[in-house]
Write a structure and sequence with these properties.
about 0% strand; about 260 residues
Length: about 260
């Protein structure tokens, strides 16, 4: 017979109970933070050691799938996590002179979800972190403390994630052989981001229209027939409508990105 499980209170708790639950939640969050950072460090070490070759696998993804039961995309996402953590750590070490274990322990957190959104934009993130750390040091006349560094990193991650990406190739084409000054470059980037945001707004509206025809509780396969009819009426394809519908449901721009 199994042990008796602790029953959590139903309804409003007493102040003491609320504080206990809050403390347990805080501890759980700290454990998750620590686990993510340990994971990033160990992925980095294993990949650098090329452990898959020693164990007879054809590549990193095959190794991770066989040993840990993760998909190919998850295997490479782990590498993205490790690379992002390493880049942030290097920037903080260089600009703030902090021992990284202390910086992470004081709340410097990299959400796993952020890694997906920031793939290919780590240089943009670390440039922003470096700029803000330098500004903080100039204001105070000394390197920022760990708590300030943690806040700067978290704010920078949130800010870069909220910006629509502007392809480097597009910037290179319009940059011109003579180069632009900073204000011209920023103006172009702002226009590019505005256009990207407008495109996403249009696709979100299309997704909301698709949801009126095929509500979110329907699986894609069940929604296809109705969306096919809608697509014929408005000059869109079933695939485009399904993608827009997923975007409206999740808010994730990758749902409508070209493969």
């Amino acid at each position: 017979m199994g042990g008796v499980r602790h029953q959590e209170p139903v309804g409003p708790a007493s102040e003491a109970e609320a504080r206990r639950l809050t403390g347990e939640l805080r501890a759980a969050i700290e454990e998750v933070r620590s686990a993510v950072l340990v994971l990033a460090a160990r992925v980095r070490a294993a990949h650098r050691a090329r452990v898959w070759t020693v164990l007879g696998y054809g590549g990193w993804a095959a190794y991770a799938g066989a040993e840990f039961g993760v998909s190919r995309s998850t295997a490479y996402r782990l590498l993205d996590l490790a690379a992002a953590a390493e880049a942030i750590e290097a920037t903080v070490r260089r600009e703030a002179g902090l021992e990284l274990s202390h910086a992470w322990d004081t709340g410097l957190v990299l959400p796993v979800r952020a890694v997906v959104d920031l793939k290919g934009r780590i240089a943009e993130l670390t440039d922003l972190i470096a700029e803000r750390l330098a500004d903080a040091g100039t204001e105070n006349g000394r390197p920022p403390e760990a708590a300030v560094v943690a806040e700067i990193v978290a704010r920078s991650v949130a800010d870069v994630r909220s910006r629509p990406d502007v392809a480097a190739a597009e910037l290179a084409v319009v940059h011109g052989p003579d180069g632009w000054d900073t204000e011209q470059w920023r103006s172009h980037v702002a226009r590019g981001r505005d256009l990207a945001r407008q495109r996403l707004d249009v696709r979100r509206e299309l997704g909301l229209l698709a949801l009126q025809v095929a509500p979110g509780y329907l699986a894609d396969r069940e929604a296809e027939e109705a969306l096919g009819i809608l697509g014929e009426e408005i000059g869109s394809t079933t695939e485009q409508l399904l993608a827009a519908r997923r975007y409206a449901l999740t808010g994730d721009p990758r749902a409508v990105e070209a493969p």
